[in-house]
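Bug #77: duplicate submission created two jobs. Keeping one. Sequence:
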Amino acid sequence: MEAVVNREGDALESIYKRYESLLRTVILSVIRDESDVEDVLHDVLLQLWEQGNRYNPNEKGLRGLLVTLARRRALDRLRRRAAYRRATESLKMDADNPLTCETSTMSNQVEVHDLSELLSRVMQELPAAQKEVVHLAFFKGMSQREIAANRRISLGTVKTRLHLAQRKLHNYLAPIQNKI
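Kept job's structure:
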């Protein structure tokens, strides 16, 4: 450590050779990710080099100091990783995020298009009279009275046709309702 304090170039190399295996084990036991071990080990040695003058040999000994530094730097790495994950998740959940909104909007457009095609196919299965009242009521927004007046049919006939069409549509779509 005296050589580190005096900034002798080979001091860190000698410490690295002596304690590398121990420090790798300590770091890996905390972060459990082989890819980060080298970076954390580098951080430990850099901290030792920069703050070597604070070393007190009577306090812990070099081995204890290095193990403490390695554990602390590894925990710091874990905390940074967790903070990054939380920030990433928060960004994904953010309703104002243009990336999320764009994906969500595009997904909704696809779903609406698919449902529209399904409904068109199902509507083709209806008799012409029922199809006409459904179209006028649900797509044109006409009331049952307006349909009756417009088509010159009784209100009861409009209600019956709508009721029969709705029942047929319901029976056709019921088996796939949970998928829609």
